[in-house]
């Protein structure tokens, strides 16, 4: 399974609509980095509104992609993390402290624009 | 409805998703809140991944139980792998022998209400329970 990555001006938008298994998550990591490379995107919004479970492995894959994209010069913002998902992540001891987040897609784009202007 | 509700063998990576979907469906049927459903599904994911990573093969069993509350969901993760050498270390946050996040077992313990682990060189069995409140 592949997660579609959309380009909007200098941004990439991803809305995860499938249950993330390990393979899909790893494939997404690779796809996103290639897409950043070929499009020259400076910002990425990863919308997780439809994701109802993030376990430690998926959290690590998603957290890593933020650092990887950062090395390539692109900022990633997570949006729409569900209340139940944020509670389970904290129970698991995963804080994703270095990951910029926003309530929804709109707030995510605003945050991204602000972060990129600061650079 | 009492006793064993379902049995999911774990032998390949996709079985992790299968086990947590089965667990979530059972949790929904038993009447758990959406937050507890997420906690249960996440705990199953961690347990199933441990089986897949360390023992290759095993199974997850779901049981309805009665105890401190009238309804509880008990999840048993059993494998015949090499066992956990140092259980007390495996319960320390951040400890992992596989280079993972190390959230595994202590995380599962926090997600669930009861947690029991038995491990020898003939395998590992972990019992966890979430009580319906």
UniProtKB/TrEMBL annotation, chain A:
Pfam families assigned to the protein according to its UniProt record, in alphabetical order: STAS (PF01740)
Top-level division of the source organism's lineage: Bacteria
CDD domains per record: STAS_RsbR_RsbS_like
STAS domain sequence ranges: 1-112
Listed PANTHER family: RSBT ANTAGONIST PROTEIN RSBS, RSBT ANTAGONIST PROTEIN RSBS-RELATED
Name listed for the protein in its UniProt record: STAS domain-containing protein
Organism: Allobacillus salarius
TrEMBL record, chain B:
Transmembrane intervals: none
Residue span(s) of domain Histidine kinase/HSP90-like ATPase: 36-128
One Pfam family linked to the record: HATPase_c
Protein name: Anti-sigma regulatory factor
Lineage: Bacteria, Bacillati, Bacillota, Bacilli, Bacillales
């Amino acid at each position: 399974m592949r997660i579609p990555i959309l380009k909007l001006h200098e941004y990439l938008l991803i809305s995860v609509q499938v249950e993330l298994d390990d393979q899909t998550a790893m494939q997404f990591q690779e796809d996103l980095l290639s897409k950043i490379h070929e499009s020259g995107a400076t910002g990425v919004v990863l919308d997780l509104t439809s994701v109802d479970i993030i376990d430690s492995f998926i959290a690590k894959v998603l957290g890593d992609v933020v650092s990887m994209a950062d090395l390539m010069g692109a900022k990633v913002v997570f949006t729409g993390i569900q209340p139940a998902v944020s509670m389970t992540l904290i129970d698991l001891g995963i804080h994703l402290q270095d990951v910029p987040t926003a309530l929804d897609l709109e707030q995510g784009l605003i945050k991204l624009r602000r972060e990129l202007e600061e650079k | 409805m009492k006793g064993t509700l379902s049995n999911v063998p774990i032998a390949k990576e996709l079985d992790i998703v299968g086990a947590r979907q089965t667990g979530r469906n059972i949790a929904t049927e038993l009447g758990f809140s959406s937050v507890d459903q997420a906690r249960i599904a996440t705990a199953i994911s961690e347990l199933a991944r441990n089986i897949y990573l360390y023992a290759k093969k095993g199974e997850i069993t779901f049981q309805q139980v009665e105890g401190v509350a009238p309804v509880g969901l008990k999840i048993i993760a059993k494998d015949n792998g090499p066992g956990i050498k140092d259980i007390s270390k495996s319960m320390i946050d951040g400890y992992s022998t596989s280079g993972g996040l190390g959230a595994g077992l202590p995380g599962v313990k926090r997600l669930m209400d009861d947690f029991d682990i038995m491990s020898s060189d003939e395998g590992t069995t972990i019992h966890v329970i979430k009580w319906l409140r």
